[in-house]
Amino acid sequence: MSRYIQKLKNLYHLFVAIVANLWYGFPSRRLKVIGVTGTDGKTTTTHLIYHILKTAGKKVSMVSSVYAIVGKKEYDIGFHITTPNPFALQKLLKQSIVNGDEYFILETTSHALDQFRVWGINYEVGVVTNITHEHLDYHQTFEDYVKTKAKLLLNSKMAVINESDKSYQFLKKLVQSSKCKVQSYNSKLKVLNQLSNLTEFNRCNYAAASLVCRKLGINEEIILKAMKVFKLPKGRLEVVYDKEFKIIIDFAHTPNAFENVLKAIKENYLNNSGRLIHVFGAAGLRDQSKRPLMGQVSGKYADLIILTEEDYRTEDPEKICQQIAEGIKDRQYLIIVDRQKAIGKAISLVKKNDIVILTGKSHEKSLCRGKTEYPWDEFEAAKTAISNLKTR
To answer: Which residues contact 231 (CB under 8 A, 6 or more apart)?
Structure first.
């Protein structure tokens, strides 16, 4: 799709957003909205900020890629979507006001920012977790991708950015001339040393959430108390089977996320006698340039790789797997397009102390084949594979 056509579509999205705000009475103006964006880590950071504020006794609602929660009611936000369409989003914001909320945490994607889906929302705080290789099919260049993410910060009273990320200096320069206050964070926050089993990549997510909540006036003791009992969102480094071998499910679907997650598993979960078996694919009609990079990173850590489908849409899934395989060097890999069969094959090959890691689908409830969304549950797929193994 040309950028010209996309701009025309964005004008339509802007019109819809304006009408949605007018229809619901600009509800975000009566809330303190905290927006979280980034290539990786934004869901965990969103959930953690929500959890800390709840622990502090604050009335707060949230939208993330896993679900939306307003008051005590949970909402599914739809297929493969993080930030809802303007009417759905404004309705949730309005319901949050009816609930008597003070805060609303909104996981905000670069697509939503570029397409004006969040137009009309003035953020109290904007957070960027990191910006790495992703969505370049849409944004064309990394610089444009960063500029799009920066729109969140430019529409916030306070910008919270990761000084250990390569985008830091560029982002800081983009927002310095604006009215928002810039706050920096990194993974070296001393309070994080009091948390056990915290992976290195999650340290930055926890540091970001901690800083946001401190700036919102939450006591540090409450923040630490909340972080100590926080459970990662569904399908984020989640161990779903742990007996003679382990199965872990994670949403990682970028080269950077692979680097973080696979390294963490090697360092924290795998003993010397076990192997790491990685099952994954890449989404169709999405950034093709990242595919060999995903293969390269997987090959860096995994002992065996099984390439499979992941929402291939109208692309050839076999070809997608072959493009991923171009980046795999000196590692054994198989291509099994059917995801259930791929997971079954991985589990049929396990030995004692091995770890099977399934990435890319996680919490999502459908798998897009062609133009049809088929029901999918990664957790059930793993259970089915284990059951089949036990009956052999």
So the answer is: none
Among 366, 309, 311, CA closest to 77: 366
Q: Among 185, 212, 229, where does a domain finish?
A: 229
The dihedral formed by the CA atoms of 310, 375, 260 and 52, expressed in degrees to the nearest 10:
150
- Domain tally for the chain? 2
Note down the domain range covering 330.
238-390
d(CA 237, CA 359): 9
Task: Read off the CATH number of the domain in which 291 is found.
Answer: 3.90.190.20
H or E element in which residue 132 lies: none
Which long-range contacts (C-beta less than 8 Å, at least 24 apart) are formed by 26-29? 26/120, 27/90, 27/93, 27/94, 27/96, 27/97, 28/93, 28/104, 28/120, 28/121, 28/122, 29/122
139 and 251: one domain? no
Q: pLDDT, tens digit, for every residue of 207-228?
A: 999 999 999 999 999 999 999 9
